[in-house]
Amino acid sequence: MPRTKDFDSFLSQRRKDPEFEAAYRAELKAIRNVDKLVRELEGERKKQSITKQELSEQTGINASQIRRTLTASGGNPTLKTFLLLVHSLGLEVSLRPSSTRARVRH
Q1: Which contacts of 41-48 are long-range, i.e. CB under 8 A and separated by 24 or more positions?
Q2: CA 19 to CA 71: how far, in whole Å?
Q3: Which single residue of 11, 61, 71, 93 has CA 20 to 30 Å from 51?
Q4: How far is it, in rounded angstroms, from Cα 84 to Cα 25?
Q5: For residues 30 and 106, what is the distance between their CA atoms, to the nearest angstrom?
Q6: In this structure, are residues 44 and 37 in contact, taking their beta carbons and an 8 Å threshold?
Q7: What is the reported pTM?
Q8: How far apart are CA 45 and CA 4, in angstroms?
């Protein structure tokens, strides 16, 4: 691994590798999708005037975990936590085909 003075220049150098760049973009997209879902949950919580403490009591999830999940930048809840929050807000999750129709194969 090349020695660099800071992370930005290191990342810039690594992104010149097409394989790394593709993986980087896929991760960035996944992070943005999680962030979008978390923002939507937080918006719905506020719309319903439900406090984070009330969510904690309804779900059994520690109140500090709910605060971190809904307000911290880059919150990344487990699927179980996400679904508990979704259901406690009276919402449901549904799947639909992507508008881009791109499929990720691993």
Answers
A1: 41/70, 41/82, 41/85, 41/86, 41/89, 42/70, 42/71, 44/89, 44/91, 45/70, 45/89, 48/89, 48/90
A2: 33
A3: 93
A4: 29
A5: 14
A6: no
A7: 0.75
A8: 44
Contact 93, 86 (CB under 8 A): yes
Q: Determine how many CB atoms are found less than 10 A away from the CB of residue 24.
A: 14
Q: Which helix (H) or strand (E) holds 45?
A: helix 18-47
Residue with tokens 């809904």: 70
Q: What is the pLDDT of residues 31-87, one digit of tens each?
A: 898 899 999 999 999 999 999 999 999 999 999 999 998 986 667 889 999 999 999
